[in-house]
Amino acid sequence: MNPLFPSATIVTLFFRLCVCTAAVSASCAKAFEWSQAKPEAHGFSSAALGTLRDDLAARRTKIFLLICDDDIIYEWYAPGFAPNQRHYTASMAKAVVGGVAFAVAADRTSLKLDDLASKYIPEWREDPRKSTITLRHLGSHTSGISDAEGSGNPGAGWMGEFWKRLPPPHDPFTVSRDVAPLVSKPGAEFHYSNPGIAMLAYATTVALQQSSEKDIRTLLAKRVIEPIGIPADEWECGYGQTFEVNNLPLVGTWGGGAFSGRAAARIGRLMLRKGDWDGKKLISEESVKTVTADSHLPGAVNCGWWTNGQNRVPALPRDAFWAAGHGGQTLLVIPSLKLIMVRNGDRLSDEQNDDALANYVFTPLMHTRLKSEIPGKEQN
């Protein structure tokens, strides 16, 4: 025994060495990156995907990214467009910003999808109709609140104020809360509503006052974006604005987002894996299911995520869900196929957005599979 190092000291030094080594190993752990594989390795045809790519390119596509079981099997960008370049997402933000934020907030607060919205919006408590609106109604476009677009001039009146994003009290949140009228009974009909989604973000933000992150942008950055490895310059949300209403820091979720193709795909991976990111639970499985499962309301949308629970797109498996925005912006997730797809660009066709996505993206994509059977086709 060396008298300069008593046995107790040796044990202590050894323990500290082990702790330091473990800390260095953890800090040097390799961050997640996609791997590469040929389409055929996952049951897709390279030739058929090439044909689909050509058609999408002709339809003003800028990003076409297909990932299966963490392998990139097809990745294409329009000339002049870079892989790390952000693309606007339009109403994709309803899901990838608003829906994801709701799921994270539900884990950290008392927020529940079947809560009455008036629990968070006191201005609605005495209204005989708005007092019956739930958060599920807001997120599924069944609240009955009118959209900010119509057959008239959307640039005039309260509709115009909504899109101009003016300071309070003419901001989109105050307009949605106090001015936007109801056009149907809550829960009875599907009426696409940007103001309805705005009020879901409003309620989410009220709930967030219970947590350490007080606004949706900060919540996403700290609890999702940074942990899953999205670079700061590959995403943004809420048009870069924050509206102070009733001392609430409100961030828009109906639009105003921008993501690179791979950044959007990482959001898709997190949702596909039920909130798990390589062993770290960022969102509970229950909360992911809450926002991506069939709402069992007209339209089958849930917290901004479109679902196939009611067979909206017959070619897709029933467990598919997707974020969708004007011009054919989309992030498609199919858990039964371990599949993620991102398409961004300009308008696909003159058809309605959901028809264009079904006709020129979703259905042709399924036809690029080498096998005719589609796992999960009959799943609910």
How would you sum up this structure, described in words?
With 380 residues, the protein is of the alpha+beta class. It contains eleven helices and 15 strands. The strands form four sheets. It has an eight-stranded mixed β-sheet, with helices on both faces. A three-stranded antiparallel β-sheet has the order 4-8-5. The chain has a two-stranded antiparallel ribbon with strand order 6-7. A hairpin with a 2-residue loop joins β2 and β3. The chain is globular and about 60 Å long. Mean pLDDT is 91; it is low at 1-5, 8-15, 17-28 and 373-380.
Identify the notable features of this structure and list them briefly:
15% strand, single chain, three-stranded antiparallel sheet, disordered C terminus, 11 helices, eight-stranded mixed sheet
* Main beta-sheet strand count, sense and barrel state: 8 strands, mixed
* Unreliable runs: 1-5, 8-15, 17-28, 373-380
Distance between the termini: 69 Å
Order of helices and strands: HEHEEEHHHHHHEEEEHEEHEEEEEH
Number of helices: 11
Helix content: 25-40%
Instruction: Give the overall shape, derived from the CA principal axes.
Output: globular
Strand content: 5-15%
Structural class: alpha+beta
Question: Got a strand count?
Answer: 15
Q: What's the structural blueprint in terms of helices and strands?
A:
Blueprint: H1 7-27, E1 35-36, H2 46-58, E2 61-68, E3 71-77, E4 87-88, H3 93-108, H4 135-139, H5 157-164, H6 172-178, H7 194-208, H8 216-225, E5 235-236, E6 243-245, E7 248-250, E8 258-259, H9 261-272, E9 276-277, E10 280-281, H10 285-292, E11 301-302, E12 305-307, E13 321-325, E14 329-334, E15 339-345, H11 353-366
Parallel strand pairs: 1-3
Antiparallel strand pairs: 2-3, 2-15, 4-8, 5-8, 6-7, 9-10, 11-12, 12-13, 13-14, 14-15
